[in-house]
Design goal:
The structure is a homodimer.
Chain A: H1 2-12, H2 18-50, H3 57-76, H4 78-87, H5 94-112, H6 115-137, H7 142-162, H8 174-180, H9 186-207, H10 222-236, E1 243-247, E2 253-255, E3 261-265, H11 272-291, H12 307-321, H13 325-338, H14 346-352, H15 369-385, H16 394-405, H17 432-451, H18 455-460, H19 465-474, H20 484-492, H21 497-513
């Protein structure tokens, strides 16, 4: 394979040992193969959420399971362990060392889980998801309780099997965090989230009941929204030669392979700001994927460094840039071109995009409150994996936590404990990535502002190239050569992301609501 | 697997031998797995031709090759041979017997080809296709000659390796026919095609220079054509719950798995009849796929019986139904609903859809001339596999054959020997399926007319259900339980398809051009 040949030179310069070079060539060839299989899996997953006809659901489920099985087999076959055994602990260049480290982590995690557990988890996810859809539809937690408990049990078992890899003193939840945001630990996140929660509550209390400048976007036809979305995508820097945008009920971005990044958005006639937010958010994800270091293909390092940093890219574009006043100065003439009768000013659009209130639903929450939703879930998940909460306890625990952390309680389970799809799909440990992303984005935004003195002037004129270039250099092109916390630190230096996020929110919301920090 | 469990009962009723049941269960499980992999391969192929961004081409090529390799490995692994060894020659019920026969044929064909040849063919196809694109673009055969010769050599080698499976006295080309239209042989096709060619020439000479009733469709907007295509699709009986229609430069239909049949069409503002033809043609393919016997999933018999019969379904709908006067009586009011200013009568539309002339390009040819294009290719391919023609001989041989068979000669190689993609992709033996399909369709049409006395009245009123029901019963639901010639014979009885096709053409074209059979 080409990738293997390219990167092999880094090793051969360092070593005269044939076995080492053979192992490296074999390993990178296998990683290339696994990348191909992962891309194929992503294609069929993308299609499932965009174009697949309803009657195909069962067939597609089997096809997806087949791909997962093939990937697991190829990832865990004994020869991979042998190659890693030859390579581990040897003196290697920076890239091969990082590649071997990452491959070893993946191999150890994959081989520590018995096939029985992997298969039971797949079944429990499928059953859990179906039970959740039903439970949410009927606004009744009962039919979801047993499937959820099953998922909790299996995830606890998985976490305990993986725990030895986390080293001594690790929290049981760390093994789950490692799956989605390698390098993050409960020990780091808990104090940071606690502090953030307190400070967000101060802000929300301050703006609560205060008047907000006027600004309300009327219903706008979806054809025009599509046109505007396409335009914004290209202006921000997404390369349509190497990707595309389609529509999906739940917008997402996925990489189908080098040169093929797919993002999706949702067009909502009655909620222009939601369409815009989706498009810009997914565009941020997509541009990260498009900026990954293609020259590291076959090493496993041509990949995102984790979901937290992935989310930092989407949130930086969605919130820091995409909800700024200069951005609406850029956007407003483009909107007027599509909807000539629309007379909202940039300031009114800015105001409409930045209303803050304690709300029930995570996915519809504003830039500030959103993080309280995550902190609530983080606390609940810690309770589950510390053995304090079981499925039967979750409806009450959800409401208690929401009352305390977010300051609202849902009158229904549909908008309460059943609001998210994640647990039903066996995703425990995923939620923190969202707020890690917001925190990273805040410090990246502050650093960007210092690095590009005319940043906002450029945004206002639709010149986003310097921002993208900076992110390419500092984040994208590093791929997964390091874990995200290190990449972040190299990019921003010794910054305090909680302080950066709160500064940003006080600055933006304080100005809009006419309040300042006490 | 569910499919294996369902079908295993057919065997277990007949047998108390554990080994036989185990082998049957193992075989059908493997066939189910191969169906899943084939479906996945079809998904990524469908995407490649519909939505894939340009920069993904190289990655997608590797992903496709990876799927082919996985399928080949799973299809040819030694245990498949062992299961077939246990099952072959035993007393089995009708379905397992057919399934084992088909599986054995696939296994023998796959294992007879050395991996070296399979891999060289894959490379030669890729190189051949690229060379053809270039050659066609520059209207110059030279850069295609060597890659084409390579493909010819490899296909000759393949044909000779597979020849023993065809039995004594087989033509070298039979092994290639077997790939696309199992059951067809040169011994059957050659006399039939010769006779058809002669009779078509009589018809074409008769209409040549004769006046044709007026009727010309003006340029029609593609949005309206899309709307009409969607409507026609549903009216004909395609189930959009279990499939969909997208756009592609070269329309095709593909089955991605049970419940997921994708068809594509091409909207041409300046050529409404071409759009309509594409849509109805692909719809015919799609309805065949949707009618395959899902209860035979996992046996390998839940599949088309060959490309000839597949093509019979598309051509029956496209030509016999879709170019008929009653069809345009059904369509004209729907067209007027979309384009109120359009004043063409059903008779004028019918006339516009049925112009006949000796023409250069196969894909744009009329219902009659089309078959001459195929006969020309059939003769050339026979020459290649009888060792009389090599790549260097083909440009001149093409022109000679066209002059003799079709009655026209292309002034350029672009519209001559380079017009088709097939050879560049290593598809030799595929072309006859098109005319086999037209012949089958003619006899099916004649039988349908007898079976449904009010056929044309129903068509005129947009009631296509009895036609689809008849095809479901006679063709679709039989899947690949038998080879196509047998399914065809069971459906139409002892008919002469050449006579049926000529009767149909003389009836339709004779009436339009005011000529009758001498």
């Amino acid at each position: 394979m080409r990738a293997a040949a390219d990167t092999a030179s880094w090793v051969s310069n360092l070593s005269h040992f044939g076995a080492r070079l053979d192992a490296w060539t074999a390993l990178t060839t296998r990683i290339g193969e696994l990348d191909e299989l992962a891309g194929i899996s992503a294609i069929i997953g993308w299609d499932e959420q965009t174009y697949m006809p309803p009657a195909a659901a069962e067939t597609r489920g089997r096809q997806s399971a087949r791909m997962s099985q093939l990937m697991h087999e190829r990832a865990t076959s004994p020869e991979v362990g042998e190659w890693l055994g030859i390579l581990a602990g040897q003196e290697l260049g920076e890239v091969p060392r990082a590649a071997v480290k990452r491959a070893l982590r993946n191999y150890e995690r994959a081989t520590m889980l018995p096939t029985r557990l992997v298969s039971e988890l797949a079944t429990a996810r499928s059953e859990g998801f179906n039970a959740w859809v039903k439970a949410k539809g009927s606004n009744d937690f009962a039919p979801f309780q047993a499937p959820l408990q099953r998922l909790i049990d299996l995830n606890r078992e998985m976490a305990s099997l993986l725990a030895p890899l986390q080293g001594p003193g690790a929290h049981p939840y760390d093994a789950l965090l490692e799956e989605y945001d390698p390098g993050s630990t409960v020990a780091d996140l808990r104090p940071m989230f606690e502090r953030l929660g307190k400070e967000l509550n101060v802000l929300l209390d301050a703006v609560s009941g205060r008047p907000h400048p006027p600004g309300k976007v009327p219903s706008l036809d979806v054809e025009g929204q599509r046109k505007l979305s396409d335009r914004v995508l290209v202006d921000l820097g997404f390369d349509l030669n190497a990707g595309r945008m389609d529509l999906a009920a739940h917008p997402f971005t996925t990489g189908l392979g080098v040169g093929d990044i797919r993002l999706t958005t949702r067009l909502q006639a009655d909620d222009f700001m939601s369409t815009l937010g989706s498009t810009v958010h997914e565009c941020g994800h997509g541009m990260y994927e498009q900026g990954l270091p293609v020259e590291l293909a076959g090493t496993g390092l041509n990949a995102a460094a984790g979901m937290g940093i992935h989310e930092s890219q989407s949130r930086l574009w969605e919130n820091f840039i995409g909800r700024s006043l200069p951005f609406f100065r850029y956007l407003q003439p483009r909107m007027a071109g599509i909807w000539p009768s629309l007379t909202l000013s940039p300031a009114e659009l800015y105001s409409a995009a930045n209303r803050v209130e304690r709300s029930l639903i995570r996915v519809a929450a504003d830039e500030a409150t959103y993080n309280l939703h995550i902190i609530a879930r983080f606390e609940l998940e810690l309770g589950i994996f510390e053995g304090k909460l079981d499925a039967k306890d979750l409806p009450a625990a959800w409401d208690d936590t929401y009352r305390r952390v977010v300051g609202v309680v849902s009158p229904t389970v549909r908008d309460g404990v059943l609001q998210d799809v994640h647990w039903s799909s066996g995703l425990f440990g995923y939620f923190p990535s969202y707020t890690i992303g917001n925190l990273y984005a805040a410090s990246l935004g502050a650093t960007l502002t210092a690095a590009i003195p005319d940043l906002w002037d450029r945004v206002e004129h639709g010149d986003f190239a310097p921002i993208l270039a900076w992110l390419r250099e500092k984040i994208h092109k590093r791929g997964h050569t390091q874990d995200a916390p290190r990449i972040f630190k190299d990019a921003v230096g010794d910054r305090d992301p909680v302080a950066d996020l709160m500064d940003h929110l006080w600055h933006r919301q304080g100005q809009l609501y006419g309040v300042s920090r006490g």
